Amino acid sequence: MAVRAAVFDVGNVLYRWDPRFLFEKLIPDPQERDWFLQNVVTMDWHAQHDAGRPLAAMVAERSAQFPQYAGLIQAYVDRWLETIPGPVPGVHALVDALARRDVPLFAITNFGVEFWEMFRPKAPVIGRFADIIISGREKLIKPDPAIYRLALERFALEPGAALFIDDREDNIRAGEKEGFVGHHFTEADSLAEALRGHGFLV
């Protein structure tokens, strides 16, 4: 079956994202900052929100566990947009080119609902996408196979009909098992080459 649609991840595909971008401003000492990101505001802790847990509960629990860092934990919510310094270079131009060629565009993203509500008004490129599966809304998180099955159903895509673009190999492998054609994203030039290979761009 010919690939006819493109399905993007958001974080570190469309927009750069890393909590470190914020905490480099708030924790001057590199060793303390590394410890904080490995033990307090961790990727696993953040992923609870991606999976649907409310931020208030997460912050209260973590602040009780690390009271000396309560202000920084709350800052992660209040200043979360500072974890996103801007678009991934070159990718928005590719999205625009695909849209001009009427390629169906969708997204599957691990994203908490409260953070999505902060982010969406700042991300005009999202308007190019016909539909987006948001993990926190569905309470399903990549690489759970169920999120890919939901995406195929909701986007009305047959197995083999969509190129799935993600920066994490485990997410790609899981998507491929459910019927997506995978592209492990590293930078815009290699993505452009893949898009040309599938006939999306010339």
Task: Summarize the structure in short.
This protein has 202 residues and is an alpha/beta fold. It is 48% helix and 13% strand.
Explain what you see.
By secondary structure, the chain is an alpha/beta fold. 48% of the residues lie in helices and 13% in strands. The protein contains 11 helices and 7 strands. The chain has helices spanning 19-26, 30-39, 43-50, 55-65, 70-78, 91-100, 113-119, 135-138, 145-154, 169-177, 188-197; strands spanning 5-8, 15-16, 86-87, 105-109, 131-134, 162-166, 181-184. The strands form 2 sheets. The chain has a 5-stranded parallel sheet, sandwiched between helices. Strands 2-3 form a two-stranded antiparallel ribbon. The longest helix is centred in the first third of the chain and has 11 residues, at 55-65. It is elongated, with a radius of gyration of 18 Å. The two termini are 20 Å apart. The model has no long low-confidence stretch (mean pLDDT 97).
Write the layout of secondary structure elements.
Layout: E1 5-8, E2 15-16, H1 19-26, H2 30-39, H3 43-50, H4 55-65, H5 70-78, E3 86-87, H6 91-100, E4 105-109, H7 113-119, E5 131-134, H8 135-138, H9 145-154, E6 162-166, H10 169-177, E7 181-184, H11 188-197
Parallel strand pairs: 1-4, 1-6, 4-5, 6-7
Antiparallel strand pairs: 2-3
